[in-house]
Amino acid sequence: SRQMDQVSALEAYEVALQIKPSSKGAISGLARTHQLLGNEELAEKYASRVRRYRKKNPFYHFAIAQAEYDSDQFDRALDSINTAISLKRNNARFHFMKGLTLHQLGDTEAALRQPTHQQHRSRELLTQAARGLQFDSRKVN
């Protein structure tokens, strides 16, 4: 039955959390499955954990920015991409998206000031060198 499948899913998610307590997929699955089973209090407990994780996840904010951009909500997209950048400054895709968004908002000069992928790669290599990590100079490009 469908309810038995959901109970089995709960058990699997709980085992996953025992193995890796920070598993975002298991936490999200527990929230959805408890909601389907009508366990509102437990569903909210896990959903709250998912929301806290999302707030700290730059890729979540990037995905929101992409959806807003695709919906021509450029002001909102700019806010979301700025949040992503504040959480992970050296991601070239984030800066590229910001440049596209600024261009759509009519600020082409600001768009052109966005760091390029090569600048981010240079920073990454300098950071590795400063930390004394080994890197292969043939992989610079």
Descriptive notes:
It is a single chain. Helix 1 (2-19) runs antiparallel to helix 2 (24-36) and helix 5 (74-87) runs antiparallel to helix 6 (92-104). It is built from eight helices and no strands. With 141 residues, it is mainly alpha-helical.
Compute the number of helices.
8
For this entry, what is the oligomeric state of its chains?
single chain
Cα distance, first to last residue? Answer: 55 Å
Largest sheet: none
Percent strand equals: under 5%
**Global structural class:** mainly alpha
Topology:
Layout lengths: L1 H18 L4 H13 L3 H17 L1 H13 L3 H14 L4 H13 L3 H5 L4 H14 L11
Helix pairs in contact: 1-2, 2-3, 4-5, 5-6
In short:
The chain is an all-alpha fold. The chain is 76% helix and 0% strand. The model is unreliable at 134-138 (pLDDT under 50).
Keywords:
141 residues, 8 helices
